[in-house]
Amino acid sequence: MRKTLWISIYLFLFSLQAYAQRPGQQFDRQKLEDAKIAFISTRLDLSPEQAQKFWPLYNQYSNQREANLRKLAELNPRREANSISDSQAKDMIAKRFAVQRQMIDDEEKFVKEVASVISYEQILKLNGISRDFTRMLYQRQRGRVQQ
Which UniProt keyword terms apply here (predicted)? Predict the structure, then answer.
């Protein structure tokens, strides 16, 4: 009886903690997305008309890129690398190359589509600006952890 009571209390507290974090994650995700839009728009010096046309294209490209990066991560063997046969490894490598080719094709398509909205100079800067935003997030997070 005592053991059941302690398990119930533990599960109740754990569920409260998990539930309490969900709304914050949704808010943070939206806040992060808004910050990214503001950061990139400012750095690229997008006009309101450009931004209105640019962001749907960028978001679609970004979603495709993230999906392909997830596929690549799934194709990276971790612990089971010793138990993979040579033919399985060859298949995994071929699949990785196919995903990487798809990523290049998606990027070429994105550049062609977005070139009608922003200049090629802005397109060239975009990748660096995206990395700058990610770097800024890591630095801020590292500062919070150290405090």
Answer: Signal
